[in-house]
Amino acid sequence: MSKHVRTSIRFLLNGAPVELSGFAPDLTLLDWLRLERRLTGSKEGCAEGDCGACTVLVGRLIDGMLGYESVNSCIRLMGSLDGTHVATIEHLDRPDGGLSPVQQAMVDHHGSQCGFCTPGIVASLHGLWLADPEPEMADIERTLQGNLCRCTGYEPIVKAAQAAAMTVPDRENDRLVAAHDEIVRQLRQFADDTRVEISHPRGMTYVPADADDLARLYADHPTGTIVAGSTDVGLWVTKQMRDIAPVIHIGGLEGLQMIEVSDDAVTLGAGVSYSAARSSMTAAFPQMAALWDRIGGEQVRNMGTVGGNIANGSPIGDTPPPLIALGASVTLRQGDTRRVVALEDFYITYGKQDRQPGEFVESVTIPKPAEDAFFAVYKISKRRDEDISALCGAFHVTLDAAGAVETARIAFGGMAGTPKRASRTEAALVGQPWSWSCIQAARAALAEDYQPLTDWRASAEYRMIAAQNLLIRFFLETSGAPAQLVRNPEMMEA
Amino acid sequence: MDAKTPILQPDAAIRGGAHEARRHDSAHKHVRGDAPYIDDMIEPAGTLHGWLGLSAHAHAKIVSMDLDAVRAAPGVRLVLTGEDVPGVNDISPTGRHDEPVLATGEALYHGQPLFAVIGETREAARRAAQLAKISYEVLPHVSDVVAAMEAGYPMVTEPLTLRRGDAAAGLAKAQHRLKGEMRVGGQDHFYLESHIAMAIPGEDDEVTVWSSTQHPSEVQHMVSHALGVASNAVTVNVRRMGGGFGGKETQGNQFAAIAAIAAKKLNRAVKIRPDRDDDMIITGKRHDFHIAYDVGYDDDGRIHAVDATFAARCGFSSDLSGPVTDRALFHADNCYFYEDVRLVSKPMMTNTVSNTAFRGFGGPQGVVGAERIIEEIAYKLGRDPLEIRKANFYAGPGRDVTPYHQRVEDNIIARVVEDLEASSDYQVRREEILEFNEMSPVIRRGISLTPVKFGISFTATWYNQAGALVHVYQDGSIHLNHGGTEMGQGLNTKVAQVLAAEFQVDFDSIRITATTTGKVPNTSATAASSGTDLNAMAAADAARQIKERLVAFAAEQYRVSPDAVRFEANHVHIGDLSLPFAGFIKQAYMGRVQLSAAGFYKTPKIHWDRASGTGRPFYYYAYGAAVSEVSVDTLTGEYQVDRVDVLHDVGRSLNPAIDIGQVEGAFVQGMGWLTTEELWWDDKGRLRTHAPSTYKIPLASDRPRIFNVKLADWAENREPTIRRSKAVGEPPFMLPISVLEAISMAVASIDDYRQCPRLDAPATPERVLMAVERLKDSAGAA
């Protein structure tokens, strides 16, 4: 048992500490900022984490180091802020009240027109400015993936981001940089390894003290909602007003932040965000680098987790297809009992996973492909970035010494009620020489593996033709013929 | 240079005068988050909040509405239905009485507001609204424009026919003839700030409404209409909108009317802000069109006859669909002379939200039809579409009359295109692309140059008027108010620059103030790109009136000729004497000079007879052209825009920075319309793309990788507009038709450019791939 229970969360808001208790389990940071604190600089544009008008920076200690990340305050639940520093647009100017380099560059380059998206854009670019003194074009575009602007066409905003990077020598004059040591000191003080319990007429909010405490809590409250990044659960609140209590926040649990890289696998704790996993994952699986930067927008990647992407069981999650193709497994924990399940078996049917009451995803282990294996993942969406897959296909093929297919693991999202392997397609490939004719046979088999649906993202017909054509793309690329578009080719060479 | 010729360069003597590339007046506030929008304003004590209850069906008889549980829910103060509207339950902007504040008896689209809940908090109202028990008798519905025509649905307003010559005879005698169809999707405005209204009750029957609206006067009229009070009881204010794009021309009426009714009933301030989903479901969008064309042309690609029908999905009511579909016809010629022509509009009723104004106002749909015709001819003749364009440009006498019988007197399109073709290296790049495509099995590229000619003026001629109110205070500071509204387009900045130039004072001595019906009455919508043309003229008129009084005062006081009084560099020069502006103003006040004036302007020369389809609806035209280059993945239909070059005509720019911002922004917005922005209704008539998770507007990473935007610095308006500038809001929206056609060219390469791919819009990756598949099939068959 944890020794203590705290009945309030503690965090820094801009320049001052806040202690907050008795809030609703579904209270969002944006509503609290705007309605309770009258900090109206952050705007609500969509309340679903897609437009970025509500973007704020959240600083947290990871391995003792303070890092700031842009997040969507509209879907960020208050309970997740325990032990963090929330910096809103009201805190991103200079201590003397002057404009920050990002703000000044936005003014100088005419980066605002109506101005409603602007505070969020400034917050996102401020995060980039803090983290990367010399951003490439691809970095700027990636940073802005989660910020919609309807007026400018973005050109002046991108120019402002480039110009702001030029003012690096002035960094010490930034509020967050100047107060860094003091903020670290205060955040360390907040970290007291106690469980947080917040009660409200609409239900409880829990922040477990550690992973073991989580296991106990969830065993006690198996109908509770585990929230890691709230990039999905946040929408249950804002879009559907679903009752999510009791809420158990795991995003800040150090015990779930593990990233283990061995010679043959990468293991990610369930609380590791996409952003935190990015360097390890793209180093171990360079074929997943392009996909990784197309999952949600930057704010969503800063909050969302691979564990959550798996656990919510969505048929259109971006990570399950490649993870299934690689033969990943999930470790499920219930109390002190753990079991390991192959990811492909975790998905039973639409909306149903192999997860018992009180059991939660603790980690996922992703084997690296053999050095001579062919592996690729392709996401197709209406808009390239920050869009949900129309379909996502992952291909993992090994050849024997004679050049015939030895093993094939192919998985698709968006083609069935769950992320699903293409078993007939795989069977059509195995044993066949890796050739154009074997691909043609596989394309025909694919039509037997899936009966995709028509919806607003794509028609069934398109999904099938595109899925079949991705087999061709995969084959061409394994033959060394580049067969897809690249937005920023200079980055690929670097 | 004669005295009437406008200045070429910004005034060096003052800061922030006309023609200076000055920042937006609120930019420094935008970046700090302290430019207040209506939801940021400090609420009066006791402010209540509204939420709307919506129809669950696309077309249904409302059998009963049991709202008891809603009324009994915690925090609920009032529930309103259409029966509770004290005045007239109608907000039809054209007086057709076809758009209720809250529907009664019958729901005509899925999401139509049926009742409003007013609660202590927005959340309380929202939760309560879910408790309504409404029983419906579901009726057959039609969502699609073609289905509406097939089902014999009515039109929401009178159609228009434009004709010149004899289209049937022209078609019959033409060397070649082709027929085709095109579908063009609609578009959600996706202003980042959703609709919002806050009504504050006043004494007697008065009410003040803060509304995110492009048309405060109309909101005033609608609120007074719904309340059953005179217009003078209603004051409507707006300082700024978080984007409008036409979506706030009429669509704010409903929220304002409901907030005002509730505020008067409860004697409390009432705010209504729909969330993004409800905003997208409840408010109208760009009209989707079905275009059918029949064209006669010759071996040289010259068009002789056009007979085309433009049918639009208008939704359940007329709203602005009449003028929108009219404008589609006005632009169905784009830059091209049609010898014999008949153009017909069909504003079809559908069981969908009532479509409305959106940047271009039907014009883009007309232009896209014209450009499809060019494309068809080019592929039929095996020629570069640019050659066909040039062969059909409006030209001198005999080839300068539009289908609505207005002469094109200010035509500069040939020069714009010639300059752009050279500066963008179009010909060389096109050759390179043709070579590339021969060698590249999967990735294909395309390039296209498309022109734009866009008519400027409201076609509702009486709308072309504007007022301004200018005060000069005793300390020389200036208060500027005008009838236009600021939605990000920089209108206030431009008008203040003009005023600074008129008085020859620094921009910073001018205070920009919220638009209000109480200061400038009877205003027109800030729409049709006309904001600066109209309001800056009105402000300049006000300045001239004050200056005339000041000159007369100075001449009398200092015994000089009026000619000897000049305003220059923050000073007033009177003979040899030079006084600081502020000091002189103090003297004028002491001399009892009236330092305030109401300015007025009405656009000259224009007239329009809709019955005969003839007149001069447009004061002038704005021109531009763009070259777009794209790459297309023929396995998936994915594409990217590699390079765009734009040359655009804004006359003599009042503010090149703001104008370039308008061109770039319009381009990317128009590109979204033609590529990734897809409105998708399901078979129950429900819009399923009603939030950014499902409705995809362009991102920074969608903008052209290379984006060269230039203003035609040699251009000036032939007409004496404000400092010879031209309107800029809408015309560049049509430039990205070049993106659509470049994608089309890449697709056409599949069949060796032998057929027009007939790529409909939006050209989503799916539509592109399906076009590729079509062409592969016919290439295989050939």
UniProtKB/TrEMBL annotation, chain A:
Keyword check for NAD: no
Domain of life where this protein originates: Bacteria
Gene Ontology molecular-function annotations: 2 iron, 2 sulfur cluster binding; FAD binding; iron ion binding; xanthine dehydrogenase activity
Protein's recorded name: Xanthine dehydrogenase small subunit
Domain FAD-binding PCMH-type, residue spans: 198-371
Residue stretches making up the 2Fe-2S ferredoxin-type domain: 7-92
Sorted UniProt keywords: FAD, Flavoprotein, Iron, Metal-binding, Oxidoreductase
Pfam families associated with the record: CO_deh_flav_C, FAD_binding_5, Fer2_2
Organism placement in taxonomy: Bacteria, Pseudomonadati, Pseudomonadota, Alphaproteobacteria, Hyphomicrobiales
TrEMBL record, chain B:
UniProt cofactor(s): Mo-molybdopterin; Mo-molybdopterin cytosine dinucleotide; [2Fe-2S] cluster; FAD
Entries under InterPro entries matching the protein: Ald_Oxase/Xan_DH_a/b, Ald_Oxase/Xan_DH_a/b_sf, Ald_Oxase/xanthine_DH-like, AldOxase/xan_DH_MoCoBD1, AldOxase/xan_DH_MoCoBD2, AldOxase/xan_DH_Mopterin-bd_sf, Xanthine_DH_Mopterin-bd_su
Oxidoreductase in keyword set: yes
Keywords for this protein: 2Fe-2S, Iron, Iron-sulfur, Metal-binding, Molybdenum, Oxidoreductase
Superkingdom assignment: Bacteria
Occurrences of domain Aldehyde oxidase/xanthine dehydrogenase a/b hammerhead (ranges): 32-140
One annotated GO molecular function: 2 iron, 2 sulfur cluster binding
Iron-sulfur is among the record's keywords: yes
PANTHER family in alphabetical order: ALDEHYDE OXIDASE 1-RELATED (PTHR11908:SF132), XANTHINE DEHYDROGENASE (PTHR11908)
Family classification: Belongs to the xanthine dehydrogenase family.
Protein name, entry field: Xanthine dehydrogenase molybdenum binding subunit apoprotein
Species name: Hoeflea marina
